[in-house]
Amino acid sequence: MNKLVFLTFLLSTFLCFSQKKALQAKSISQNISIDGKLEESAWENVGIASDFITLEPDNGKAAPENKKTNIKVLYDNDAIYIGAMMYDDEPDKILKEISQRDNFGTADIFGVFINGFNDGQQDFMFYVSAADVQGDCIMTDANGEDYSWDAVWISKASITENGWVVEIKIPYSALRFSQENKQTWGINFFREVKRTRYKYTWNFVDKKIGTFTQQAGVLEGIENIKPPTRLFFMPYASYYLNAGEGQKTYGTVKGGMDIKYGITDAFTVDAILIPDFGQTKYDDQILNLGPFEQQFNENRAFFTEGTDLFNKGNMFYSRRIGGKPSVEPDLKDDEEIIETVQNVNLINALKLSGRTKNGLGVGILNAVTEKTFATIKDTISGETRREVVEPLTNYNVLVLDQRFRKNSSVTFINTNVTRNGHYKDANVTGLAWDLNTKANTYSLFGNVKYSTINDTEDTKGVFSTVSFAETSGNYRYSLGTDFVSKDFDPNDLGINFYTNYYNFYGNANYRILNPTKLFNSFRIDYEMYSEFNKDSGKVQANRIEAEVNLSTVKNNYYGAGLSVSPLESYDYYEPRADNRYVIIPRKFDFWGSISTNYNHKFAIDINPSLSVADEPGRAAYGTDISPRYRFNDKLLLVYTFSFLKRNNNKGYVDGYDDDDNENTPETIVFANRDVITYANTISGKYAINSTMTLNLAVRQYWSSAENKDILKLEADGTLDPYPQYTENKNSSFYSWNADLSYSWWFAPGSQLSALYRNNASNFERIIDKDFKNNVTSLLTNDALKHIFSVSVKYFIDYNAVKNKVRKRA
């Protein structure tokens, strides 16, 4: 009898957890005050979402009664309203660090995840912390959480004697959904109790299944809504005060406007007129000794917000727009460049994005940059002239993404760059697919891309990749292969370094899905990778790798990995000449990581690494050490020290032809060098309240490459002494950046920010090993550039203005 009762209980529990829960929203006409109190009568007699289930670490276990959560949902023609009560039997222990938007710090969190199409493909996620800090993002299983997306919505959190309460108003303008009279949305609710690191969801999310967005519940009851016109204006004005050695202090006033217009409930147009990116975060520049450009993160809001569609197929690198000029000026004898620009000015940009009720996503992005010149001087006559280094240029991206079966998609992507006049044009077209079985147990992923460059010589190239994976259970694996032709070139609007190869790779991994006596999480990965030059068949890369990552029951995180390259490989990129290569010896790499529990006031991250090559004295070692201290819920400081030393590193320093005989191979000069890098960064914040923060970011960087022996690259890829080369090709680059900023979100979507920034950098061929001198030499009036700026952005809702005008009339 007891066995029968037990089996019945297990069956009922399984059915409860495996079925999608449903919640009824209630229509209201009463005004709701977003004050975190839930005192309006509209909140009475409303369906409740409760019975939360553990997501991590004990996946599938019912949430304890002393941490129960109750959710209610209301709606009207303007928005939906969420009222959440998070019970806690120890409310005085609720963690509530105040932080910047989208950065919750050490605080309890409540979240609501909404999919207006209920297609299991993309969630709009809205979070509120116990410190009343907002966060929002777009979530897809393929790309994870994208916090660059920011919506305008209202929330309020408050601590009570029974736990804490959140009240949220999400305007329909912040969501995407079909135009049906009767709406059915996918929805899930989330809660994290920070002091225990336990996470709960309303609808059960089974971690055995490799998907999150497809395991939501259902929100019903929203009917016959008439959302207002989605038209928003965001005018802004900025003032910049610039100072530096050798120039007069001068001020600049800038202004412009962003516009958002909802063509339908599903499609939105974003336009930026007279852009101003003066307050974007600085780039962390490095001493780049390799054959490829340094890739930078995108910090401009227009190019980060809601760009998930444009990232399909990995064909769009937005830093190309408004980046460095693409044309090198033709210099005559005795001419030199005396003035050029670092970044081309953006004139305007526009993007349209959305999705139909049948799952077809459409993304269109257009941007125009201005004609740009360099100033060139004749060193004998003193005359100057101007030459175009970037013509008027038009950038376009088109994406058509068809979703189906709630877990799969096929995507068409096209990027093209058209330059005015006789300059280079480029076009890349791609087809990408992400196919999953109905039960989300296996996936087939891949894409094919075709590039065309129209220049003095037209070139065409192909890139293709395909992979197959098991995506569920404790044990998972994947297999894949890539093929890239020599002339594949997406770099006018994308970024790609390696061409002319094919590869094969595989991964197998094991993870625990529920905690043990020792671990909250545990995962071990095994990977193999082999890459071959397409023309010669030589091995370009090879490695066998194993890695383990775990978290203990005390929420400390540890990781370690070992990678072995058992074969010599042939590097076709470092020589920077066609059909030349340098032999890379066998090696092994080791790395580790320690991250102590951030719940404690003091925590530390340590990441050591070691690389040893099968060549006398050729090795590299380094570490990142990052202690952090949370003084209280308002003040946090983080310091990071990074160190890397590469001994007997072999790298390119120069190349030239021996004589005018075209049959004579180019002489390629390498150096045996020691490379050392130091970086110190300090970041911190002081939160005045949940909408007002002071932020600090300081970075000091120094890296040098000291050549010990000059070498000549032979035709067979070996290196021999080459003492007749006597040029000084040592490298030393040091830089300093400091930002002190104040940010105040004084109204929904409206922000005032003030920034003081100073920066300096220097590149030399002479290496000064006095570390103190390298730092202090940048901290003088002769070296530093200073910028002080104030910027105000104001969010204007067309409907709010229209209603005020009507009331006055």
Description:
The chain has 809 residues and is mainly β. Helix content is 4%, strand content 54%. The chain is built from three helices and 45 strands. The strands form five sheets. The protein has a 24-stranded antiparallel β-barrel. Strand 15 (231-244) and strand 16 form a beta hairpin. The longest helix is centred in the first third of the chain and has 17 residues, at 2-18.
Task: Throw out a few tags for this protein.
809 residues; mainly beta; 9-stranded mixed β-sheet; 3 helices; 54% strand; globular
**What integer is the average pLDDT?**
91
**What portion of the residues fall into strands of 2 or more residues?**
over 45%
Number of E-state strands: 45
Could you describe the largest sheet, including whether it forms a barrel? 24 strands, antiparallel, barrel
Write the layout of secondary structure elements.
Layout: H1 2-18, E1 22-24, E2 26-27, E3 53-56, E4 69-75, E5 79-87, E6 109-115, E7 123-129, E8 134-140, E9 144-146, E10 154-160, E11 163-171, E12 182-193, E13 198-201, E14 217-223, E15 231-244, E16 247-262, E17 267-273, E18 335-339, E19 346-355, E20 360-369, E21 372-378, E22 384-390, E23 393-404, E24 408-419, E25 425-436, E26 442-454, E27 459-470, E28 475-484, E29 501-511, E30 519-533, E31 539-552, E32 557-565, E33 569-571, E34 582-584, E35 587-595, E36 602-613, E37 619-630, E38 635-656, E39 667-689, E40 692-713, E41 719-721, E42 731-747, E43 750-764, H2 771-776, E44 785-793, E45 796-797, H3 798-808
Parallel strand pairs: 1-14, 2-4
Antiparallel strand pairs: 3-13, 4-5, 5-11, 6-7, 6-12, 7-8, 8-9, 10-11, 12-13, 12-14, 15-16, 15-44, 15-45, 16-17, 17-19, 18-21, 19-20, 20-23, 21-22, 23-24, 24-25, 25-26, 26-27, 27-28, 28-29, 29-30, 30-31, 31-32, 32-35, 33-34, 35-36, 36-37, 37-38, 38-39, 39-40, 40-41, 40-42, 42-43, 43-44
